[in-house]
Design a protein that fits this description.
This protein is an alpha+beta fold and about 350 residues long. Helix content is about 20%, strand content about 30%. The radius of gyration is 22 Å and the shape is globular. The structure holds zinc ion. Zinc ion (ZN) binds next to α3. The site of zinc ion (ZN) has 7 residues, from α3.
């Protein structure tokens, strides 16, 4: 078990707040603060670097607060920082944070043992005349490694033909007259047979899985981008504490209730010549499960402290749904049956 060279894990997460990962303040149309998107499709995403950076920070705080780690601030950053006395502090290069997330010292650098993909939208909530539905498309399901398997054969999820939508078997949605509006877009139902029972979506609430709708690939980005949340905020003058005149600005955000997926590839530190991980007063064996547990100790804070650094404005809380049981192997959906801890 601990001799594997690498191990991929797939995680699902749901936005508890709107999520805003900004591109740096360029104005596009009516929106001042636009969000990061995938270049090819224009679909908003959370960059892997954002997830990794927040995870590292929270894992560091967790390790310090429960006494696993002495750890200096440079370990939290992964590179040298200036201490209070103005002297450089180097990352230790031996603790669970440095080994899991990588580090750069003056004399040595080491790559991360955990690499994070972007978090991409899997199910996107849209208000319709019969209440919220969660929209997805065959391309997105395929990218997430979700396939339909029956009688030992696997097949990709079929695409609805001609601007129609498919309601997978077992979903509890009944659109009147077989039509449904997605924001301003009205589509007709395609009666294709899709069976989501074998999709292996552990951790995603039944309330969401019961309300899934599959739309054509080319309509998915359009439906998302016309149903993003746009919030207006006021610039506050820091001196007077009052609103600056004419300083209204708008934020674009991925709405609450959006379900994402992302993958973390874990590498075995032993194959990089790392045998031990330094703890506060001792050391422990370096293995893949230690790396997985360190990442888990950071991800568990996302639902309280958020990602993207805007939680004080009510943005960014993201609950990882399958932290306890996230043994999904993205290659074959295999369970490894190993309990963590
Ligand atoms: Zn360290």
């Amino acid at each position: 078990m601990n001799n594997e060279i690498y191990k991929p894990k797939k995680y699902f997460a749901i936005a508890l707040d709107p999520i805003h990962i900004g591109t740096g303040g360029y104005r596009i149309g009516r929106v001042d603060n636009t969000i990061v998107r995938e270049p090819a499709t224009g679909i908003p995403k959370i960059p892997g670097t954002t997830i990794e950076g927040n995870c590292r920070n929270y894992a560091f705080l967790d390790a310090k607060s429960d006494g696993r780690l002495e750890g200096n601030l440079a370990c939290a950053k992964g590179k040298k920082v200036k201490g209070d006395d103005g002297k450089d502090i180097q990352p230790c290069g031996e603790c669970e944070i440095c080994i899991t997330f990588g580090y750069t010292k003056d004399d040595k650098s080491m790559q991360a043992m955990a690499s994070f993909s972007d978090a991409r939208i899997l199910f996107f909530p849209v208000a319709t005349m019969i209440g919220p539905v969660w929209v997805t498309c065959p391309m997105v399901l395929k990218d997430a490694g979700i396939r339909e398997s029956n009688n030992d054969s696997e097949k990709e999820i079929p695409e609805p033909v001609g601007n129609k939508f498919i309601i997978p078997n077992g979903c509890k949605i009944q659109p009147p007259e077989e039509k449904l509006n997605f924001g301003w877009l009205l589509l007709e139902k395609d009666n294709k047979d899709i069976n989501p029972e074998t999709w292996n979506l552990k951790g995603i609430p039944k309330d969401i899985l019961n309300r899934i709708v599959i739309v054509p690939d080319d309509l998915f980005p359009q439906i998302i981008n016309s149903n993003l949340e746009v919030r207006t905020s006021v610039s506050i003058d820091p001196l007077t504490g009052t609103a600056e005149e004419g300083a209204l600005f708008t934020y674009e955000a991925i709405p609450r209730g959006t379900v994402f997926w992302f993958e973390v590839i874990y590498q075995n530190p032993k194959y990089f010549g790392i045998d031990k991980i330094k703890t506060k007063d001792n050391e422990k064996d370096a293995n893949i499960n230690e790396i997985i547990n360190t990442v888990k100790s950071g991800l568990k804070y996302f639902e309280f402290l958020g990602v993207g650094g805007m939680s004080s404005r009510g943005f960014g809380r993201l609950k990882v749904l399958n932290l306890e049981t996230s043994n999904n192997n993205i290659e074959n959906g295999e369970e490894d049956g190993k309990s963590e801890e």
